[in-house]
Every structure is written in structure tokens, then in C-alpha cells.
């Protein structure tokens, strides 16, 4: 049975409040006062994201990255990029990690060496660290 707080949150979400939609999605995602339901979490995140709520856009990226279903880093990165372009720092970080780890992107070490120039090919500690990271 749903608690009063969840009922109130659901009513606000159903009335179109994007913050309430995101918070309700979080409840379904984590199983807080409701049964875990990733499909409902996705639906509520989508409604909030469609209204431009950056944390909901980011959360959709997390759902795709972690693969509730099958992981899809390419789709996750699209959501991260959308939120990152608007200044959402967690999305910027997640997108950077995806680039760094080659998740959803091709890792091109030759292009990386060209970007770092000769320093990237040198035997100095700083040159090695740039290519190792």
C-alpha cells in the first residue's frame, strides 16, 4: 500500500510537475515506499525529461548505461550530452568517463597521440600519464 507522501507525490507528478515526476521515478527506481519498477521509473523520467528537467535527462542516461534491459552506452551518451550541453555537471562527468573508457564511442589512440603532439609520444612521465589515463 502506498504511503500518503507517495500519493501526494504521484498526484503532483500526474498534474505535470517535472520535479515530482523525477522524484517519483527515483522512488520506483530504488524501491522507496513502492515496489521497484524500472518501466515506471523510465516512464516518469521520460515525462520530466520531455519538460526539460536536466536531472531527469541525466537519469535516463543512467538507466541506459546501467542496462535495465540491455546496456546501451550510445543511447546513454546521447542523454548525457543533452544534459551536459546545458551545464548539468553530473552529465558532463558521465560523458567524460564514457569518452575516457570508450563506452559508446570508438577509442582512437592515433588521434589521441596527434592531439597531445610529440609530448604524448615522449618518454617523460607527463607524456606517459596522458596516454595511460
Structural features:
single chain, 133 residues, mainly alpha
Set down the secondary structure blueprint.
Blueprint: H1 4-14, H2 18-30, H3 38-50, H4 54-66, H5 73-85, H6 89-101, H7 109-121, H8 125-132
Helix pairs in contact: 1-2, 2-3, 3-4, 4-5, 5-6, 7-8
Largest β sheet strand count, sense and barrel closure: none
Q: What coarse outline follows from CA principal-axis ratios?
A: globular
Count the E strands: 0
Termini distance? 49 Å
- The DSSP helix count reads 8
Rg of Cα set: 19 Å
Order of helices and strands: HHHHHHHH
Low-confidence stretches: 118-133
Mean pLDDT: 82
Structural class: mainly alpha
The amount of beta strand, in percent, is under 5%
What level of helicity do the residues show? over 70%
What does this structure look like?
Helices cover 73% and strands 0% of the residues. The protein has helices at 4-14, 18-30, 38-50, 54-66, 73-85, 89-101, 109-121, 125-132. α3 (38-50) packs antiparallel against α4 (54-66), α4 runs antiparallel to α5 (73-85) and α5 (73-85) crosses α6. The longest helix is centred in the N-terminal third of the chain and has 13 residues, at 18-30. The chain is globular and about 45 Å long.
